[in-house]
User: Fold this.
Amino acid sequence: MKLNRLQRSAAIAFVAAIVASILLVGLAGKSEKSDKVVYTVGDVQAMHAKVTLGEREVRGKARLADGDRLRTSPDGRARLRLDDATLVVVDSSTDFTLHGSGITLNQGRLFVQGEAASRIEVTLGAATATVSSSAAAFEANAGSDRKRHDKIYCVQGELVVRAGGRQERIASGEMASIESNGPKVAPEKAFDDWTGGLAVPWAGETGLHSAIAELWGRRGGDDPGKPLAIRSEAIETTIDGELAVTRTRTRYFNGTEGSVRAEIRMAAPPGAILSRVALVEGESESSVREALLLPGKLEAQPSYPTGQLSWAGNGWLRGELPSIVSGATVELIVEYVEWLPTRAGGATYRFPMAQTGEAPLVGDLSAKVDVKRTDTAWIRASNGTSVHDRTVELHRADARPNGDLVVELAPSIVMPGAARAYVTSGDKGEDPYVMIRTEVPEKTEVGVSLALVVDTSMSAGASALESERAVVDALLEGLGSRDSLVVMAADQTVRPLGSPKPAPVTAALRADVRKSLASIRAGGSSNLALALEHAADVLDAQASGNQSGSGMVVYIGDGRPTVGELEARDIRRRLTRRVGGMPRLGAVAVGEGANRWLLARLVAGSGPVYEVADRSEAASVGASLVADALEPTHRNVGLDLGPNIDRIYPREARAALAGSTVTVVGRLRGRLPARIGFRFRDSVKLVEESRKLVSVTVPEGADVPRRWAAARIEEIMARGDGIEAARVLASQAKLLTPWTSWFFASPGDTSPHACVPFEQRLLGLSPTLDASFAPYIEPAAVNSSLLLEPPRTLSGGVTLIEGAQAAAHRTIGEAYGALRACRDARAAMRTDVVGSLRINLVVNPEGKATEVRATAAQPQDDDPALDRCVKGIIESLPFFGAGKPMTLSHELTILPGRGSQRTRCSPTAALPFPVRRGIWRARSLHGAERYVQAARSCELPSWRDRRALLELSLDETSNSEQRLLLASALDAAGEPDAAAFVRNEALRRVTTAEELARVSRALMIGEPVIDGAFDKAYRAATSDEKRLDVVRRFLRIAPHSALARRRLLAVLEVLGRKEALVLAIDRVRSDPFADAGLLAAGASALRRVGQDAEGRRAFGELVERAPGDPWTLAFAGDRLRAENLFDEAVANYDSLARALPDDPAVSLRLALAHAGAGRLDVATRLLERVAQNGGRGDDGRLGELASMTQAVLLASARSVSAGPDVDAQLMRRLVQTPLPDVKSLVVITMPPTEDAIHVSVARERAEHDEQPADLDAPSLGLAAVRIERGEGLALNRLKRPANSDAIRTAHATVSALILAEDRAASKVVTRQVDVAPNGVAIELRWDGESFL
Amino acid sequence: MGAPDGSSELSRSARALASAFLAWARDDARRAGRTDETERLLGRARRLASADTSSNASVRIVLTWSHPELRPALWTSALGALTPAADNFALFGVAQAFMPASPAPVVQLRLDPEDAERAARLGVQALVTAITGEGTADERIAHLMVTFGGAGHSVDRVNVRLENGALHQEAL
Assistant:
């Protein structure tokens, strides 16, 4: 058959079309097949190994796919967050499968918590239950009889279970046992809470922030505003290699009746840097207004003519838009750049949409993630998306997004064992910028080694110590037999609790640690560096094989060192100097006063930091720490980039998760090196390797200069170089920081614009994200000063009767709880019963209340039943018997309880916590009124919220008096918990001894001074037992009396009542108003009764109470010297010398301490310096005293045979010592205590004319007398006051140096004397040659 | 809700009630021979006790009632003479006291005479629970239902003594 031309053409065209079609289909098919696409439904985090997903082990976090089977080993535990906001806790030995909208539990235990928007079906055996707006625990177990014993326990809300053709409702607190004929429901008496607290199902989740910006329209004032409707949210992301550029366009509609000022709140993902902010007003694309990144000018009352978007802490961004009129639309455009981290061969892009609280409704939600330029071989994307042409797409209408959009991929550019370099040219004349990225090697580990350092110093206090115990407890529960653990108690010393080296975590070890920890009490000062160094050494000593790599030192405490290294930088330096280098270090900041910024800087680049404000947060933090520690990690990871790259950041080597990406930035000053050095520590061994450096084409949108600037700013801030340099650099690099913002300003404008002060814009500060900025924005609270100086006088005060009356009023006040119970009991019968009462009574000579009469303050309010109840209580109270009757009238007001009126929840109550805090801050009401209003508006659902609001109010006060007023107002408002919290905080925030004295007076207003009457009675007592009776009686009147408490310790010691003495000292140590002298007396007594270690801790507490305070350091050093604890004294004096450099008195103290420790050389050199410089600031007496002391020390040393060379040295220095031209000189050294020895001298010419020592420094424990030439006898008298509370003699050394013409022939005569505290003088007659 | 340091009124009353509920459940479980359940309950009681007990007070005495018009006050002999217990939470229907096991602890329930008459007329009761060595292996639990008189007569003070592991009502 022949075809004509047209037919031939048609046939050719037809065949070509078919071939082309086949080719296209084939190509298309090939293209789709090369992209292996898996859809994922949630996140899983391994809380403890081993957790397997299908056949692969989960380390850290991973995504779950529909159909995945998850199994945990007998030690394994995991937590899940599904994208519909369902939370699941997985116990050990559990096996389940995810499918569609359900879980099939084959074996083990699950705890499932469903939010209002989530709905998940859990199937176990033949039973199925749906969890939505409820929480339930499921247990599927095959019993020994091979039958299933499945159970479902409803923790919260209610469930409906279907089984055996029946369905049953399970209410909160009920357990359903699944039997062959269906579920059997019964109340549960003792559910085995294997979750460690059902309230913490998702440990480590510190609050979810969505990157979808919300706009709240406000009309000003206290109006929290309402969210503007989000018409559309369009997310467009391009991933090029490992760089992701995200553009979001969010369109809002003001549907309210008037114009509003819109507040913007959104979060940026961790690691993202904003590159563009713009606004489209109306519908037209032509009206785009670009925001400019400019320096901000903090103003208390800023106006916002142009609107802005600022940094708000903890990943938040916050700002305002100009007025939006009713019915108008605006579109906010935000662009940001992320460098995707690789982990285990895959990179993860995540657009955060999950958030704490209800997500906003989005009219049209669309997302496109283009991964074409990654050359990935596979794609895993969130369920609900579709993948077309290597673009992941999401389209939803009227959606409330509860889960993040997650895309996982493997950029082909990432090659194991090689490094990538991105080079971007700098400005004209400047060096190019370079970013280098490479991957840390993978690592297989089976367990974790932890060294826990539990801060037991005094500042921890009982409450924080309890929280620390709870954290340790949670860690013990989280660890298994393949893990090893060592726990150390740390204050000024370090001691193991249980095993001294890491040991497997068994039931016996848990019991041992718990027992040891329970017996610990807070005390002593805090030497953080010493403790961490010791713990790291212990961990390294144990290091072997794979176990050691994941070894981590975890500090649990308040992060407030008081001795040794005090700054994070110094502590890190000490740790880096170790043979094993910087350890992997984690920290838990415990308590309200914890210095979380110091801890954040301490662990920066080496581990996590968590916060535990109270016990309730301990369980989740413990679980998270175990999960963190479990992740295989390499320590001291660093890159050697050669000579052509400098200004490299970060500067220090860091810890990095195995298989993860490390990034460094720098400036290129020549050719890019072909290879770079890569080093890390595998266990304790330092591994160094050379890696090929591949230059990569910089993708569009890359922000290498900004990354360099950000890293440099972080370094500047961490170094403490101030904010100005950082501000300038950020402005140049167009980098958002706390001091720069995006302003909708006129094009070309470069001037600083007014921006919101931090206290108004801050939504949170995270130790992880904001460690470098935070200390400048919210400086750590200055150290408390909780040490009163000893009272100057211990006499005077009121009469016994007056004191007894004051004590009687206080006794009635202390019975307040019982009296309020009377009122409460009556309130049920008489709602109008009032709490204002007048109580008249007579206290008889023995202290019994008689003739008691209680009536209402106003006769018409009287309630006889209430009066009778009060009378009964008063009659039962033991009063102080003053030996004669006392008539008393007491006015009492019983405060109303918490209001019973209904609460009306405010719109603010539904907002996330950080936002609520911002609104509280802006309210016109303050103090107690604001607290009560918030409490009654459901805005304070948990203690965490209450504490935050109270802290806000406390921050608004400027002194202790205002804080105590706030506490009183809260008490009056029926909020005793809040009042108690504020009082504790008022005390913790005291920063000077004067302020402490004022607080002390305010809080002990009902306690009289009764020293005079007490002293009289004490002296009249004829035996120690009777003296003890007197002391105890008077302490009932004045429990904090400095004199009575001193004498209590003294008498108990004399009587040998060790147990009572230790108890009394314990009370003194825990009293914030105990003075320094009393505390030192207690510490000294502890050492004398055989509790040396505890005594030393008690001395350490002096510094712990007022760290850094010069007076305290001097006082503590002197007292330690008096105890012959010379090394401890030197440590205190060293700190003092740092605080007061070149102070001659400090040098003199230091010299005496060194001399006491036998370090004669350094002691005499210090004395020499004082002799040379000491007289400049005074009349020269200190210099002369130093010279004389030096001479005596040198001469004394010569008298002890030390060899001719040493003797020659000593002689030379003695000859060079400047001394007065006298016949001899007498130097007396004695303990520098409260009841110091008084030294006087009577010369022969006028023996009865007693004069003080020529040079007398009792506070230093030093005195000196000159014996002039031609003088005869001199009588030296050493005496202690007769009314001293001391019970022991004080030891003094009297050294006389006889000066010869030839100084080398001078000799020293020494006499040791004991001076009793009885006012009787010890007399030493000096005749110029010897003591007679 | 309240401060978690455990010193607030709300926390103390919550712990007192939890302690009583757990004690009754343990008592039931022991009687029924449910060992596992007893152990679990004992573990919880131990945690609760660790937050409350002091070194020399080994007996927790909890007074509970449910009738809203009954407001007894708990007095104890802990200090020698009878004094009001520190924890009298009339509004929450619970009062508690900690006492040493020796000498035999005595508590007194007090009502106002008017209230006692009403209580007698209504026939309302209060339950005294004594837990010795709470949470320990040697723990002993005793309880006693107390009435405040009957038809025609009322009692405004009731003494209860813990002796040999049992609670006894004493004549006044």
Observations:
- The longest helix of chain A spans residues 5-34.
- Residues 20-34, 199-206, 545-549 of chain A have pLDDT under 50 and may be disordered.
- Chain A touches chain B at residues 189-192, 463, 518, 614-616, 815, 817-818, 821-822, 824-829, 865, 868-869, 872-873, 876-878, 897, 941-943, 946, 976-977, 980-981 (CB under 8 Å).
- Chain A has 32 helices and 64 strands.
